[in-house]
Design brief:
single chain; alpha+beta; four-stranded antiparallel sheet; four-stranded mixed sheet
Length: 242
């Protein structure tokens, strides 16, 4: 890791706190903003002006350019956070830069990158220790917690496993209690005579497939309130249906 003098780090962090937000055409640190403790994340840097390496001077311009790229980390106390720069060349003769960040403690970290070649500066906040979000999966809808459940559906694949008896018992209790909550089972491949999924189960089936079957889906109207992956006990169902 390239370590920088503490005085320089303090100056860079102070500058980052008082400078206005960066324009879109300026340098930017991309990549995830959430990480787990001990997880290495790669952060691509865009917007840098590449040095001219076609002057016949070999790698001297690249070395001089890289020497003016500095990084700093504003981190919680007693951490061993590190940020390692990695410089590569593109097929077109340009230069690309990425940063590898890792730390051993949870908290909010601010990475600062200063390009002494152009006087540009940018920052990136990383929350370490929270839930790592899979960017390939859709974000569940935000639902007002004050909304009451109207349907509880256990979605399953008939050929995979039997429905747990405690789950079936809990659904029967909810159905018998009334209260405006419809409790039911739905088999993944069930369709109407026209080959369509019944409308009342469309939202539950979609949410269950995204979470993974079998799955208990609690709805308020057509909105998904919560999902419970592979419940096996009566208390899991009753708690989710509250």
């Amino acid at each position: 890791m390239r370590r920088i003098p503490s005085f320089f780090a303090a100056c860079v962090l102070f500058a980052a706190s008082v400078l206005p937000a960066q324009d879109p055409d300026k340098i930017k640190i991309g990549g995830p903003s959430i990480a787990a403790v001990g997880q290495e994340i790669r952060l691509p840097v865009t917007g840098l002006v590449s040095p001219d390496i076609t002057t016949g001077e070999g790698i001297k311009p690249l070395i001089a350019w890289a020497a003016k790229i500095q990084t700093a980390i504003d981190s919680p106390l007693d951490t061993s956070a590190s940020v390692d720069p990695e410089i590569g060349l593109t097929l077109g003769g340009g230069v690309k830069l990425s940063l590898t960040f890792v730390t051993d403690k949870p908290g909010l970290y601010v990475l600062v990158l200063a390009d002494g070649n152009t006087g540009k500066l940018t920052t990136k906040r990383i929350n370490v220790g929270g839930v790592v979000v899979d960017p390939t999966k859709p974000t569940p809808p935000v639902v007002d917690p004050s909304r009451k459940p109207t349907a509880v559906t256990y979605v399953y694949e008939k050929d995979e496993a039997a429905i747990p008896r405690p789950v079936q018992a809990a659904l029967n209790k909810i159905h018998a209690a009334g209260g405006g909550v419809v409790a039911s089972l739905f088999e993944d491949d069930s369709t109407t005579g026209t080959g369509q999924v019944p409308r009342q189960y469309q939202a539950a089936l979609k949410a269950a497939r995204e979470a993974g079957l079998p799955c208990l889906v609690v709805l308020s109207g057509d909105d998904v309130v919560r999902t419970v992956k592979a419940p096996t006990t009566e208390s899991q169902v009753m708690e989710a249906a509250k």
